[in-house]
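Quick one:
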Amino acid sequence: SDLISQWRLDYSEEELRGLLEAWGVQAEMLGVTPSAETRSEEIQMWLDEYRGDSPIGSFVILDDMTDMGHLAHRLVNAEFETGLTIGHAREALGLMKAAGQKPGVRA
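Output:
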């Protein structure tokens, strides 16, 4: 997975990996997005850059921000106040299945 969060500005990648591991997140963190004006720009920049290593077939965006522009169809909007819920996880899995990707964490 790729970390697109304000956290990336406050913690190093190593610290973020440690936090995610401590919380029981079992996923490889591929990197962090660059900073841009909108989340969609950050995500697109990362996708364009990462594409050279191994193309991303499908992805879901889990975010409390909604400025996703052309990527809005990939967004599962988790509100800041409640965080991620089982409902959000189901919605994300549904988007991945609809896109023909085996559910799992990628990016």
